[in-house]
Here is the input.
Amino acid sequence: MKKVYLISGGITKFAKANPKKDFRAMVREAYDYALADLPSFNPTMIDGSVISYFSDHFLRQLKAGAMVQDYLGLCPKPSKRIEGGGATGGLCIQAAYEEVASGRMKVCLAAGFETMSRVNTWKGNEFIALASDTNFDYPLGGFYTGYYAMMVVRHMHEFGTTPEQMAMVSVKNHKNALHNPFAQHPADITINDVRNSEMVSWPLTRLDCCTMSDGAAVAILADEETAAKLCDKPVLVKGIGTGTDCMRMADRPHGAVPLLPHENAADYQNLKYPGVHSFRAGRTAAKQAYEQAGITNPLEELDLIELHDAYTSSEIQTYEDLGLCKYGKGGEFVEKGYSFLENVEYNLDLPEKGKLPVNPSGGLLASGHPVGATGLMQGVFAFWQLQETLTKHFGNDKLQINNPKNALIHSHAGTGTYVTVTILEAT
Here is the structure.
């Protein structure tokens, strides 16, 4: 299997609506941004593409991926469309990785997009809810905020997690986004602002939830020989992992926690796992990626994480799935400040501030969530962090991690039915 590197990336500014640009124009904008960062690159070097978008319903257009392939001038080269709910963008990066690692391609373009503004919010939530079991979950009122509220209420019951701890995630990510010019919803907010915003599904308020978005992102992946020729600071894709679980939570069997190298079975003797409070697919994906990348203690060996925070609650749950802390300790993890940035002022008491920054970009909560582009957006931001070029792209250095070596990106679909984890390493 060949080594695979990220050599460039680009995104559009994510927005609530982008009526002047259709999906092809948005992808082209992100693609041109990526090409501008590779002066020695010629588009004829691209051997093929993987193109991701979540829903045909938003577009009212089948085969939109083929239309993007045409618009970018990549016909008649090979291309495929990837769809996997909220994990669509993360799956796209991994599919492009596989094309290069297999030797089929030397250079593969990963491109993702979504245009969610063509319908009203209620209809958009209905389309997203079609990613649940439409025979079983959907007739019971299956909007995802309700699912995530149910899961975090169980997390609160089992572990003592509080709404205020969840609100700290929102404060962190929205304030980080104040320094990210690509972000849709930067905001200087407080815990009280989060708790006093409109209640959506208790305990999740409007500021605990990400927003629907229009946007696109691309990443260019290449083999080792090509990367060395074209890019001064290529970033190695060091490990990938993908986990799955039953669509219906009631069908998920209980068993032992899949342990990571730094964990002990004794820690979880009395834990009903995965329960409704945890994502077995997330732990499965993390375990695979860590094994391939040689990561034995993520809290000590990773320098930043961009994870799928569709809800503040899911960020806390994902801390645990990724092994940043023990199951049940995610609330304490954020309350102590581990996942905050050292260079940003949050007006919170954070005794362990800056240990392992999570969502320095602002995450989905503040950057936005155009589903097919989201995982690619995470990859591009992590790529720029590891290149230490964030100042160039953002116009300021507030979010740049000092001398980062390893980053993790994480995408999540449904109630944990697909989860991807990808480890990136600076070279």
About this structure: The radius of gyration is 20 Å. Residues 4-115 form a domain with the Peroxisomal Thiolase; Chain A, domain 1 fold (CATH 3.40.47.10). The chain has a mean pLDDT of 96.
